[in-house]
Amino acid sequence: MAEGPCENADQRTISDTASEAGNNLEGILNILSQMPNKLDLQNMGSDLKQTIFAETATQELTNLLQTRKPRRELYRSLDLRRRTEDLENRSRRCNIRIRGIPENMPSEELRDLAVKLFSEVLDDSGTPQIPIERIHRVGIQRGNFPRDVLCCLAQFEIKEQILQKARNIDGIHYENNILHLYQDLVSTITQRRLLRPLTLALREGNISYKWGFPFALLALKNDKTFALRYPMEISNFCQQLDILIPEISEWRNYIMGPPEEAPAVQSGDIPCTPTRRRDFTPSRQWRKRLNAQSPTRLPNTPRNKKTS
User: Which residue ranges does the record annotate as region Disordered (predicted)?
Assistant: First the structure.
């Protein structure tokens, strides 16, 4: 009869352990039933990939827009410069530059000489007096070359007739000197000179071209017209015309300025260029959402308590 209380205590311990194990098993089964199945995991992975792809595409689009904004500003600046030069050229539309007149000729005789030259070019002895508003030398004398003489005519039509006929004359002879007539343009003459390697390549390829206003180089091939306005267009321009890209870095520097020089690297330093890598980590709000959708971590099953 002394063993009765011990047996009852053991039975109660076994009963409590079985009840606790049953409760733990029921909790585990409940947790397992709430866990997502294979299809749910696939859907969550697909949503995550789409989210990362959308955020990456948005970031790349933002970077692209930020890159294009300075380029648009550059094009606007260059276009404004072209239009300003065109306005200045229009204000000089009645001017003619005479190159080759000796420097020792007095300024008082320049007007009479210009009238005589223009009459010879027009080849009409009966031409009335050509009205000249003003005439003077321009620029700085360089070496033994005389300065150009700038002549402003009163009528644009007469100026055009003179220049058109002067194109068919290989210089005008005057007292052992050869004189040439040119239009008075702002930077157009300089740009044409800097683009001479390109125009030479066009002539070698039997491609006709002409100059446009505001400044542009217009080339005609297969009944199509291709225009070159800015240095950034040279690669596409030559590719469309099927010619090699000539060396015209001076024209590029004249329009856009010299390129910025990279800082000198010392002999002991090794330049390192950081490589930008894509960040596929989802944003914080999506991490919170994924954590909310993920199953609860399984609790550790308590060990059976040792009966004391």
Answer: 262-308
Read off the tokens for 186. 């702002």
Cα–Cα distance, 152 to 147 (Å, whole number): 16
pLDDT value of position 271: 46
Domain range annotation of the chain:
95-184, 189-256
The pLDDT, as a whole number, for residue 305 is: 44
What's the pLDDT tens digit per position in 85-97?
778 878 888 999 9
At residue 270, the pLDDT reads 42
Q: Which of 57-61, 88-92, 194-198, 225-229 is predicted least confidently?
A: 57-61
Instruction: Give the H/E segment covering residue 290.
Output: helix 284-293
Distance between CA atoms of residues 43 and 39, nearest Å: 6
CA angle 198, 145, 111 (to 5 degrees): 105
Q: CA 194 to CA 249: how far, in whole Å?
A: 9
3-state secondary structure (DSSP) of residue 285: helix
Q: What is the mean pLDDT of residues 219-242?
A: 92
Task: Please name the residues in contact with 66: beta carbons below 8 A apart, sequence gap of 6 or more.
Answer: none
Q: What angle do CA 169, 174, 175 make, to 5 degrees?
A: 150
Looking at the domain that runs over 95-184, which CATH code has it been given?
Answer: 3.30.70.330
Helix/strand/coil for 245: coil
Q: 168 vs 118, 189, 264, CA distance in Å?
A: 14, 19, 53
CB 97 within 8 A of CB 182: yes
Positive or negative CA dihedral for 140, 141, 142, 147? positive
CATH classification for the domain delimited by 189-256, as one of 3.40.50.12780, 3.50.50.60, 1.25.40.10, 3.30.250.20: 3.30.250.20
